Amino acid sequence: MTRTKACRMPDVLKTADGKERRVGVEIEMSGLGYDQLVTLAARLLGGVPVLRSRYVTSLKTELGEFTIELDSAPIKDLDLADERLPRSIRELGGQAMDVIDAAAERIVPLEIVSPPLPFTRLEAIESLIDNLREAGALGSREAIYFAFGLQLNPELPDLRPATLVRYFQAFTLLYDWLKARHQLDVSRKFTTYIEPWHSRYTERLMADDYQPELPQLMEDYLEFNPTRNRALDLLPLFAHLDHERLDHHVRDPRIKSRPTLHYRLPDCDINNPDWHFSSVWNDWVVLEQLASNPDDLSEMRALFRESGKLNLHNLTHSWQETTGNWLARKGYVWAA
Q: In the predicted model, is pLDDT for residue 127 greater than 70?
């Protein structure tokens, strides 16, 4: 399906130093063999694939360097020719690896990881995903154990604490609404890595007088969320801002330092013809717009605090419903 300018843009498109903001995209899927995916991605994106290690291929394109990999370190690193293994196992050689490969490609997600892309170039991801669907790629709904995700790593406009707080507050306010729109498959609803932030942290975050400096901002979050397993994972950002402080709470070699948020909530429902990358991205843009509008953010925070009170409205309306109605009334959501 080809569409023109399906990906909407937020009002804030540039960083504080005048550069266009960028976003990294991670796409998990199955249904295609590894070599098939590499060949197809090379054709769709342009460029020559270079095998870096078993199940890790780099693809240099005019957009930057994409990585195509099997999302499982033990299998990627497996080497049956290793002389430390017993001879009987090493002699199985290619036959054993063929069996492992066939099983891995059915159970372990294949992943395409983009370079940081300018927001205005995201139509390339829209086209890539639509073409992968047509080629037979499968998403979360295909099997209960898949739980595939589509992850965004959007660069922030700046790294001032006040800006970070606005984004954190906007995410808290929209979490239920976003989850309802993005969590289409039961397999990811029962995973632990898309959890909301701890309620005691969000209570502190939502206070009208919450204006911390960076050290306190990090301490407040890490006191209640010292884990990667959050729908909006802040640990890569904190590693970039103050790695030493982060190490006091969390030590994990998987944390990659970068000046971005790490949005892990959405499904990858790639084989659903009604699902598109732009649907996920455009909902993220709603968060962007709310974070950049202090008056609306303040109004919605007041509604959020009110939603915790015992009254007739709250007994008959969920926060998700209240959020959707408010966003529609304010013009944050658009007709399909």
A: yes
